[in-house]
Specification:
Blueprint: H1 2-14, H2 20-25, E1 33-34, E2 40-44, H3 49-54, H4 61-71, E3 81-84, E4 91-94, E5 97-100, H5 105-122, E6 126-130, H6 132-138, H7 145-148, E7 160-164, H8 167-172, H9 179-216
Parallel strand pairs: 2-3, 2-6, 6-7
Antiparallel strand pairs: 1-3, 4-5
The structure holds uracil.
Length: 217
């Protein structure tokens, strides 16, 4: 049931023309990838060049670092669902070349019509925002990534939301050998196990409810 609705949402999203400029400059709409039944959803800001070319989120240099951090937790991309707040690469054409830029507020708002149903169909227990822009979008406008990363916050989108450092930032600060990389690994660990715990609690409370209903009859 969810699989069909999800497929339909993806099909519609791939045809989106809400943002004039992004519709012209994109190669692919990058909807998302991973396990739609996962209790944990990872949400970044928006696709870059490699993601735009391949149509898959987090597959460039930053994506490889993210994948390594997942692997260091014995996880693969298929244990989580990965997407972005904006589904098209935001860039400007300068001298015939595509130059990345942050998505505008209008583009981010336009894309909520895909992100919000995507979140509600997946219905994750926990959302891990990858980087400050995603955290500012989904947690709080004045979110302070260095001070508030790794902390749980209540959310309207999931039971719980958390943010971690963006892998591009970690690459600029020394990559896998930096202490920032260790923080990313630690945050993913904390997020995944909290998400699993919340999911198993939800499952057992559903089965308690079902059992007590069964006792009524
Ligand atoms: N950065 C993001 O925020 N998302 C991607 O998919 C790739 C890089």
């Amino acid at each position: 049931m969810i699989d069909n609705s999800f497929k339909k949402l993806k099909e519609e999203c791939l045809k989106c023309v809400a943002c004039n400029q992004l519709t012209k400059t994109r190669t692919n709409v990058v909807f998302g990838e991973g396990n739609i039944k996962s209790p944990l959803m990872l949400i970044g800001e928006g696709p870059g060049e490699t993601e735009d070319l391949k149509g898959v989120p987090f597959v460039g240099k930053a994506g490889q670092l993210l994948e390594e951090a997942l692997q260091d937790n014995n996880l693969t991309r298929n244990d989580v669902y990965i997407t972005n707040t904006v589904k098209c690469r935001a860039c400007d054409m300068v001298d015939g070349k595509k130059i990345n830029r942050p998505p505008s507020e209008e583009e981010t708002n336009n894309c909520r019509k895909w992100l919000l149903p995507q979140i509600s169909l997946i219905d994750p227990e926990l959302i891990l925002c990858i980087g400050a822009p995603s955290a500012k979008n989904l947690i709080r406008k004045n979110f302070k990534i260095t001070q508030e990363r790794g902390l749980y916050f209540p959310s309207n989108y999931a039971k719980c939301i958390m943010a971690t450092l963006h892998p591009s930032y970690i690459l600029r600060k020394g990559g896998v050998n930096s202490s920032f990389y260790e923080l990313l690994v630690k945050d993913i660990c904390k997020a995944y196990y909290a998400a699993k715990e919340l999911r198993s609690k939800r499952m057992s409370s559903t089965s308690i409810q079902l059992n007590s209903r069964a006792e009524l009859f």
